[in-house]
Every structure is written in C-alpha cells, then in structure tokens.
Design a protein that fits this description.
With 128 residues, the chain is an all-alpha fold. Helices cover 78% and strands 0% of the residues. The longest helix is centred in the C-terminal third of the chain and has 36 residues. The chain is elongated.
Length: 128
C-alpha cells in the first residue's frame, strides 16, 4: 500500500471543516455514551430508565452512531445553500438527531414490552 490518503468523493467531503465539526460532536457523544455505560450493570432494554430519562440517553447514542454516517450528506446539503450555511448545516444535523430521538419512543415501548415478557414469562422470552 502506498502512503497516499484514500481518494474518492465521500472521503473528500469528510475532509471539510463542516464534516470535521460533525465528527467531533459524534466523538464527544461517544465519550459520553461510554461514560454512561460504565455505570450500568445488566439491565433491561430500557436500561432501567423511564421514558423521560430514556429518550435523552437514546438520543445521545443515536448522535454518536448516526452523525458520522450523515456527515457526507450534511456537507453536500450545506454546499447547495447559499445563505446562512452554518445555520442551515446545524439545523439539518439537529433535525436529524431530533427525529432519531423521536424514534426512541417506539423503541422504548418495544423494549419495555419485551422486558416485561422476559421478567414475567422467562420461557417465552427464550423464543423471542
């Protein structure tokens, strides 16, 4: 292998200041997720949290995992607008994370249901 950086349109997009900002935010979110996880023991799918506590933790995890994947698209979007580029990129990323946060509501309901079944009917849970 040569010592040259990987080439291609996606990798060029990721070498922008905007993408770097999103990746730094994702990195900070990963550090927070790891710090949160270190204090947990074996718990249910809801992490032993109620809905109001679950959603911020879920949203943090989604930010850590999903911001790196959307960074190239966000940078492409930012390049298509001509005014308030930073504001528009921030709005794009914030809306993306808010929507992932809202996806935590059905995720919480499903996890709570499965945890309830697992506690009340361990044999049934084995097959789920």
């Amino acid at each position: 292998m040569s010592g040259r950086p990987v080439q291609g349109p996606i990798f060029r997009l990721l070498r922008t200041r905007e993408a770097a900002g999103l990746l730094v935010i994702a990195g900070v979110a990963w550090v927070a997720v790891i710090a949160q996880a270190r204090g947990m023991s074996m718990v249910s799918g809801t992490m032993g949290l109620g809905l109001l506590a679950f959603i911020p933790v879920w949203t943090l995890m989604m930010g850590a995992m999903m911001l790196p994947t959307v960074a190239p698209v966000a940078v492409l979007y930012e390049r298509t607008v001509s005014d308030n580029r930073v504001l528009r990129l921030g709005s794009f990323a914030a809306t993306y994370i808010v929507l992932w946060g809202l996806a935590g509501i059905p995720a919480f309901a499903i996890a709570a249901l499965l945890s309830s079944v697992a506690m009340d009917h361990p044999q049934t849970a084995r097959y789920m």
